[in-house]
Amino acid sequence: MKIFNKIMLGMAIATATFASGAQDNWPSKPINFIVPYAPGGPTDIMARLLSVPLGQKLGTTVIVENKAGASGNIGSAQVARSKPDGYTILLATSGNMSVNQTLFKNLNYDPIKDFAPIIQISKFPLVLEVKTGSDIKTLQQFIDYAKANPTAVSFGSAGNGSPQHLCPELIKKMTGVSMQHVPYKGASLAVNDVMGSQIFSMCDIMAGSIKYIQGGQLQPIAVTTKNRAPALPDVPTMNESGLPGFDYYAWHGIVAAAGTPPAIIAKYNKALNEIFADPEFRKRWEAIGSEVIGGSSEDFTKLIQSESVRLGELVKSLGVQLD
Questions:
Q1: CB neighbourhood size of 308 (10 A)
Q2: What is the homologous superfamily of the domain 125-249 according to CATH?
Q3: If residue 234 lies in a helix (H) or strand (E), which one and from where to where?
Q4: Contact partners, residue 164, CB within 8 Å, separation at least 6
Q5: How confident is the model at residue 161 (pLDDT cuts 50, 70, 90)?
Q6: Quick one: pLDDT band at residue 318, thresholds 50, 70, 90?
Q7: Parts of the chain belonging to CATH 3.40.190.150
Q8: What is the pLDDT averaged over residues 224-248?
Q9: What number of helices (H) and strands (E) belong to the chain?
Q10: Cβ neighbours of residue 95 under 8 Å, at least 6 residues apart?
């Protein structure tokens, strides 16, 4: 019996030593960075901005892979089911982490239990926009037109439950206007259809539309946060435009599968905070319209949990639910 116990103890020590050594040598192969939406949208833009400096910090290649569909649920579920070794990470959004568990009756992952949060990377205003050339220049004109033409105003989104979906739903509730929702597999597809006149409008996360606004292809009506956006300082807020108290924003972060070793989560967090501390990178990040966030994995965990309550209550108050 004593010999058996010694053997088992030796095996346990060897296993622990191997695991520790593997973590010390991590990463030893490329990392897959899953974006659960189509290429070209804000999540894709952020992932590609981060992939090169993150790979340089960690000493490996970071491969961005778009897994769009089901309002971000397909890509999110893939990461939730992945091996918890740190080689697969997810660009997490307020939609797939804090909205979808309330919006969908049958969600195939648990945003709280199935992920290990790494870091928050953004906090974005959205911007209500129409195609350039429209006679609508102000929020009041937008509301008046929607009331006079209750079947004419549609809005696109990155999918059900996305910020681009819930923000117009909040506008509808506060103003009483009628607007038809057209969900896409990613924000970039919806933006293209606004510019092509296939849909009337959109409330897009600023990163996805700012180049088209600055290029004169989209007309901004108002930003959705309580303060004006530094990247679009001449665009008024919803509050300034006649909707008192309106304050809606989107956030993003990075998560790995639950069970990923804390040492690997810490390596990611350290590398990403160092990236955000770089002045040149900060300029590039702020240019897409986001605040520079960063912080600890514990901070991001608390955000996901608190936003699950806040955004879940918003979904319920709007009366939005899907099978």
A1: 19
A2: Periplasmic binding protein-like II (3.40.190.10)
A3: none
A4: 126, 155, 156, 157, 158, 187, 190, 202, 203, 204, 205
A5: confident
A6: confident
A7: 29-124+250-318
A8: 95
A9: 12, 9
A10: 71, 72, 158, 159, 161, 162, 163, 165
Name the DSSP letter for residue 25.
T
pLDDT tens-digit profile of 104-151? 888 999 999 999 999 999 999 999 999 999 999 999 999 999 999 999
Assign 323 a pLDDT band (cuts: 50, 70, 90): low
Strand partners, 252: 93, 122
Best-predicted range by mean pLDDT (67-76, 93-102, 139-148, 304-313): 139-148
> In which residue are the tokens 């539309």 written?
209
Local structure of residue 83 (DSSP, 8 states): -
Q: Is 124 helix (H, G, I), strand (E, B) or coil?
A: strand
Residues in the chain: 323
User: How far apart, in Å, are the Cα atoms of 10 and each of 21, 23, 250?
Assistant: 16, 20, 50
Give the CATH number of domain 29-124+250-318.
3.40.190.150
| Residues carrying CATH 3.40.190.10, the chain | 125-249
